[in-house]
Each structure stands twice: as C-alpha cells, then as structure tokens.
Design brief:
alpha/beta; 6 helices; 5 strands
C-alpha cells in the first residue's frame, strides 16, 4: 500500500487508484486535483494494484468466523479514517475498473461484520470520482457516475461528482485543457447529500 500523508486540516482524503497501470491518465488527473487542496490537508494514496487482495466472497449467510487479511484490514481502516474518499478509476467498458469494483464489493463485507459500525461511520463523509476515458462525450461515463452516486446514497454520504477527462495514450490527459482546468477547483465543488432517483 502506498501511503503519502500530510497532516493539517479537519478533512482527510483517501485516494483509491484503480487503474491497471501506474501513473496513468486517471492518476495524473487525480493528482492535479489533489495538488489544489489546502496545505496540510491529509492525503493517503492507495494503489489497488499494489495490494494482494482476493476477490470478494459474500459470507453473509455463512459462518461468522471469517478472518480479515492484513491488506483488507489496512484498506478498511484507511477507508474509515477518511472524511473524503476519491475513487480514481479509468472508464473500462463504461463503468468502474475490476480493481475498483472489487474494493467497493468489500464494502459489502464490512457492512456485515458482526458488530460493525461501517455504515454509521461512513455516513456524512463525501465520495468523489475521477476518471479518464477515450471518448470526448462524457455521457458515456454515466454508468460509472451512477454507481458512485448510488453507493454514496446507500451509505448516507455526500457526492462531489466525477472529474472526467479524455485521454487514451499515456500522458495525454495533459492535452485535455477542460479537464485540467476543472481539476484546479474540483474539490471546491458542492457536495450535496447523495440521493437515489426515487428520492428526488
């Protein structure tokens, strides 16, 4: 797990990198946005490719003696410690990457640990998204946006939206002036309480 931490404010950010390669366009865009946070804001960066984490297995209706692995517990604690969680996933087949989806699947397990207060502790926090994709039409990322919004809504979190950029070849995100400009103020965006469509 990669941990880059700076101490200071009452907000703390967890950046979850879900790309299949390091230093990809999504990570570059996320780091451009993070660079605008106030000095001293705690930042923790986790690259899911650096974690040995098995595929999630739903054990809700099985024995309760399941033991968490070390990496899982580190990831769970990092998630709970953050006030703001930033999911940085490239757009793969119009939704989240497999690594990122597995991370969110683990949330299901953490919800169902006997005595868990995961949902209560997540409530009131803020979920954000960052994604790079080949299309210039950002509407194709609606599936990713919906997945994050609904996840936040289920947990009673706020949703800051998704910072979207266009790039396919490594490093090309720098050429997307619209995305790089938006990155400068992304974390200043309004963060309303996430809602399901039937609640609006």
């Amino acid at each position: 797990m990669t941990l880059d931490t700076v101490r200071g404010t009452d907000r703390s950010f967890l950046f979850v990198l879900g790309s299949s390669r390091s230093d990809g366009n999504t990570e570059i865009l996320a780091r451009a946005a993070a660079a605008q946070l106030p000095a001293g804001t705690p930042q923790r960066w986790v690259d899911l490719n650096e974690l040995t984490l098995p595929d999630f297995q739903d054990g809700r209706h099985e024995s309760a003696d399941r033991q968490d692995g070390e990496n899982e517990e580190l990831l769970r604690q990092a998630t709970l410690d953050a006030t703001d969680i930033v999911i940085a996933s490239p757009l793969y087949w119009y939704t989240l990457s497999a690594q990122t989806k597995r991370y969110l699947d683990y949330w299901s397990g953490w919800l169902n640990v006997p005595g868990s207060d995961f949902k209560e502790r997540m409530a009131g926090g803020t979920l954000w998204g960052v994604t790079a994709m080949a299309h210039e039409e950002y509407e194709v990322a609606d599936g990713l946006v919906t997945a994050l919004n609904h996840s936040a809504a289920y947990l009673g979190m706020r949703f800051g939206g998704v910072l979207t950029g266009t790039a396919s070849r490594p490093g090309r995100i720098h050429a997307d002036e619209r995305a790089m400009t938006r990155a400068k103020t992304f974390f200043e965006s309004e963060t309303p309480l996430a809602r399901f469509p039937f609640e609006e």
